[in-house]
Amino acid sequence: MNLYKLTLCQAKEKLASGDITATALTESLLNRIDEVEGKIKSYLSLDKEQAMQSAEQADIQLSKGTGGSLCGLPLAVKDVLCTSNMPTTCGSKILEGFTPPYNATAIEKLNEAGAVILGKLAMDEFAMGSTNENCAYQIPENPWKQGYITGGSSGGSAASVAACECLASLGSDTGGSIRQPASLCSVVGLKPTYGRVSRYGLVAFASSLDQVGPLTRDVADSSLMMEVISGYDTRDSTSINRPVPDYSAALQDGGMQGMRVGVPAEYFTEGLDPEVEKTVRNGIEMLADAGAEIVDVSLPHTEYCVAVYYLIAPAEASSNLARYDGVRYGVRNTDADSLIDMYKESRSDGFGDEVKQRILIGTYALSAGYYDAYYKKASQVRTLIKDDFSKVFNDCDLIVSPVLPTPAWKIGAKAEDPLAVYLSDILTISANLTGTPGMSVPCGFSQSGLPIGIQLQATHFNEEALLRGGWNVEQ
Length: 475
Known about the structure:
Elements: H1 8-17, H2 22-40, E1 43-46, H3 48-64, E2 74-78, H4 105-112, E3 116-121, H5 155-162, E4 168-172, H6 179-185, E5 188-191, E6 212-216, H7 219-229, E7 260-264, H8 274-289, E8 293-297, H9 305-320, H10 339-350, H11 353-366, H12 372-393, E9 398-402, H13 418-423, H14 429-434, E10 438-445, E11 451-457, H15 463-474
Parallel strand pairs: 2-3, 2-4, 7-8, 7-9
Antiparallel strand pairs: 1-3, 4-6, 5-6, 5-10, 9-11, 10-11
């Protein structure tokens, strides 16, 4: 048996029954990584020795019946989450070789649950990108078609799950960075409600938008991961003190009876690939067949989402990334003749072009004389977008749409057209601007064999509705 093909829940069951051991399961995953990593390029760092030690410890706990809910299950995490025993580079040269002195809360929760962490996964530099082509070290390739993008910024997290290089992974989502690569790699990606999962130890890109979430092979695995990583954290001032539901129970109800699903007209307009539209509408029919009532809804401020996002996110990034100056954090240029030159040269050498571009945009938007015209106005329109969603969720349990306007494209195909890449986020950005949860579930394939996902969105803290809807599509 190829143990690396098991889902989280399948592996958990076999470990509990003694059919397999954590050591054998971890060995299988490590062998799989040796076999395909040269093509996929999803890992930035891998610690085989530590993984095997964790697996051996998990076997001891399993034999005593004291293991946690993820005991012995091999996972991997996006390189934006702080790990005290592995490098955390955020896909950037400016943090090359940096190992944090502490673990992110999400990592602590995985460790407490007994997970075996294999390594850190490739990402767009500081999570800035939609294709994973902005990683300073390597560009992951889509497991379904080599030479094509994985999506970003959690491209390594999606590709590693799709290629069976781990049983599940953690990513972060600032404008669709979990859902978009999940769709392009045919895995399940869930962006939780803002505040549901602690951001402590998540290296900040845009603090009011960032959220940690799981990428898994199926919806049941996603519910298991959510039960582990969710919860209140006093170290995160944006963490919400609410009980963590039994997410797995949402999958036991069966059917969609009594649920209303909204289809926004603004998400099915010009620019949407015909194959994507056909596939997603098939998914909507699946929800209707399961008993859901399908209704047409409107989100009139959708057209402003990209403009609002690309003012707010860079503005917050310019503030958050000011700390990487060669003194407090980051690589230092030692050839500079003065303090100011050292700042300038360290940041010029350490940051890539996309990060520099967003810092410049954000600094401009926050500067005296322009703050009111740009950042303040974007924040006001953000409120209007949030109001649109609140009105729809007064009448609907879910909103359903495509995740991206197109399937994956070739690496480098849009390198000279950054605006086209930015516009690929138009269908996912809203969940980050509003703080609502969203999920991508595999829904089909294009004629050329590229995956297409369907996006489900729900009101704040109603991840159960997402899981129930996604589970029914999956069935």
